[in-house]
């Protein structure tokens, strides 16, 4: 689809294209499109296909160890060069497993979650969210606890309704960016002797630029349903990269 001319065209694609299907995942990483799974009739697929947009050709990526099982109605998202696939449904019902594919080596890894995973679900939304934290270091014995607390404070503040990053407060701006940042209030310059206050939560002091912060990448999962007909309204996050 050409957005400038608002017109569709059929591309001359080479190679063996995937079989007709629906409920599959399609994720773009650079100039490559990846397709996983889906279903047709009562058949579920576990195949993995790649289309090179420069060569305009399809290729079938052979299954290797730890590949996701056959499924449909799952969701996938690219985080850098990695593809994350979560949930969906199979012949046995809804799923709650998470896999990561390194598109440089085409190797799959099953991600072992710390704590209980989201409930088994299909037809949900999933995207990447980026937040920023201070580079301020703490002692080793406090590091993990502090990072967890900082992450919780950022998410509690930034994802709640009415916050500067929430959809409600941005719906009139037309912005749909997946990167969530937060504003740091400016210091009071009326009193030069007054100690510079620290921003709320996990931010650094006010004279620390946001660009000096550490980016934290999350997967945000929202909603969906199970095969019993229960519809979910929860939102869950998974930290994909541990801050240094």
Describe, in short, the structure shown.
This protein has 244 residues and is mainly beta. The protein is built from 2 helices and 15 strands.
Explain how this protein is built.
Rab9 effector required for endosome to trans-Golgi network (TGN) transport. This is Rab9 effector protein with kelch motifs. InterPro entries: Kelch-typ_b-propeller, Rab9_kelch_effector. Residues 155-213 are annotated as: Disordered. The chain has 244 residues and is mainly β. It folds into two domains: 25-121, no CATH class; 135-212, no CATH class. The protein has two helices and 15 strands. It has helices spanning 140-158, 167-170, and strands at 25-29, 32-36, 39-40, 43-44, 48-52, 57-61, 75-79, 82-86, 89-90, 93-94, 98-102, 107-110, 125-133, 214-222, 235-239. The strands form five sheets. The chain has a four-stranded antiparallel beta sheet, with no helix packed on it. A four-stranded antiparallel beta sheet has the order 7-8-11-12, with no helix packed on it. Strand 1 (25-29) and strand 2 (32-36) form a beta hairpin. The longest helix is centred in the middle third of the chain and has 19 residues, at 140-158. 22% of the residues are buried. Residues 164-211 have low confidence and may be disordered.
């Amino acid at each position: 689809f050409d957005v400038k001319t608002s017109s569709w065209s059929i591309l001359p694609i080479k190679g063996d294209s995937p079989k007709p299907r629906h409920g599959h995942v399609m994720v773009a990483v650079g100039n490559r499109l990846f397709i996983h799974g889906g279903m047709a009739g009562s058949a579920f697929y576990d195949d993995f296909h790649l289309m090179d947009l420069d060569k305009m050709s399809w290729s079938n990526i052979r299954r290797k160890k730890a590949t996701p099982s056959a499924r449909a109605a799952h969701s996938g998202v690219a985080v850098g060069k990695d593809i994350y696939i979560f949930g969906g449904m199979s012949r046995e019902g809804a799923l709650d497993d998470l896999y990561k594919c390194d598109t440089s080596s085409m190797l799959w890894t099953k991600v072992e979650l710390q704590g209980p995973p989201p409930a088994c679900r299909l037809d949900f939304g999933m995207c990447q969210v980026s937040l920023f934290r201070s580079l301020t270091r703490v002692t080793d014995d406090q590091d993990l606890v502090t990072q967890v607390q900082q992450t919780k404070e950022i998410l509690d503040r930034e994802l709640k309704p009415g916050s500067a990053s929430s959809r409600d407060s941005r719906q009139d701006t037309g912005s749909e960016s997946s990167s969530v940042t937060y504003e740091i209030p400016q210091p009071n310059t009326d009193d030069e002797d007054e100690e510079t206050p620290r921003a709320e939560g996990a931010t650094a002091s006010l004279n620390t630029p946001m660009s000096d912060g550490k980016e934290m990448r999350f997967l945000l999962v929202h909603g969906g349903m199970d095969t019993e007909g229960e519809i979910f309204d929860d939102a869950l996050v998974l930290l994909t990269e541990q801050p240094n």
